[in-house]
Structure formats: C-alpha cells, structure tokens
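In this section we walk through a basic example: taking a raw amino acid sequence and producing a predicted 3D structure, encoded as discrete structure tokens. The instruction is simple. Fold the sequence below.
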Amino acid sequence: MNESDITVLSHINKTLEHNPHARQREIAQHSNLSLGMTNAILKRFVEKGWICLKKLNSRTMQYIVTPEGLAVVSKRSYKYFKRTFSVVQTYKDKIQNILIDAKTKGIKKVILVGDSDLQFVIEWACNKHGVVLGKQKKITKTTNPDTLVFVGEATDTVQAAGTVVKLIDLIGVEV
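The resulting token sequence is shown next.
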C-alpha cells in the first residue's frame, strides 16, 4: 500500500460520495487520471478488496468502496490529523512561552501583523494570559516598546519598537 494508491482511493471515495452511480469516466476526471489508468487502478483495487463491483446491467457497473477501503482512507486521515494536532500543540507551546516571557518583561499588548495560519493560537494565548491583541494588515506607525509584534508568515519584515517575532521562523521548530 503506497501513498499514491491511498490518494487515488480517497478521490474515488469522494467521487462516489457525490455520485454513487459514477462511471469510470467521471471517476477518471475527478481523479485527474486517464480512463485507461483508472480502469487498471479500479481492477487493482478490486483485487485488494478496497472496491467492490456491482453489475447493474450488461454495460453498467457500480463501484462501491468497501469497508476495507474506507479503513485505509480513514487510517490515513487519522495519521494526518494526529500529525497536524502535534504540530499545532508545538506552536501553541512556543507562542505561549514567547508571550509569557514578553509579559514578564513588561509587554502589555500584542499585535499580529498580516495574515497567519497561527492566528487562532495567538488569540488563545492572549486570552489565556489576559493580554490585549490587535490585528493589522501592516504596521503604519512605530509601536510602543511595551508591544509584542507577531509578523504573519507571508508578511514582509516590519520595523517596530518592542519585541518582534516572525512566525515564519517558528516553522523551523522541530516536531
């Protein structure tokens, strides 16, 4: 079982969820595969027990993802969720430690500059530690020295008084 097989199985499953009577051509289109490749893959997945074929008439087949096939897709989703949760927990700890350290140094306000996938973690940490959070697309004026500035991942470096933390630098945190 390889990752590309699971990806294709996942595409097939999504296609069949939207249209349980999808034919090979529709499955091929949704999976971005040729019709011939889709035919070969469906045969292989039938052999593996991931797909079941039901003959509706002499020309029409119905494809059904078996419980075994669903288990394969679910296991992959679970591993992805578990890995993602671990990464978010690492970021949460790192951001919380930065905030606690800054608060002991007299920081009273946090500003998030630009967009960040970690915004919800920063909001959580500020709420938990009673620190005011502001959000700006970009710094238009110099901030106070008692302000911690988090710079979003896709935002250019900013010049600001106070403590500046580039969130892109946190991505290198080992998980």
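Looking at the output, two observations stand out. Strands lie at 51-55, 61-65, 109-113, 132-136, 147-151, 163-166. The mean pLDDT is 87. In the next section we compare this with other chains.
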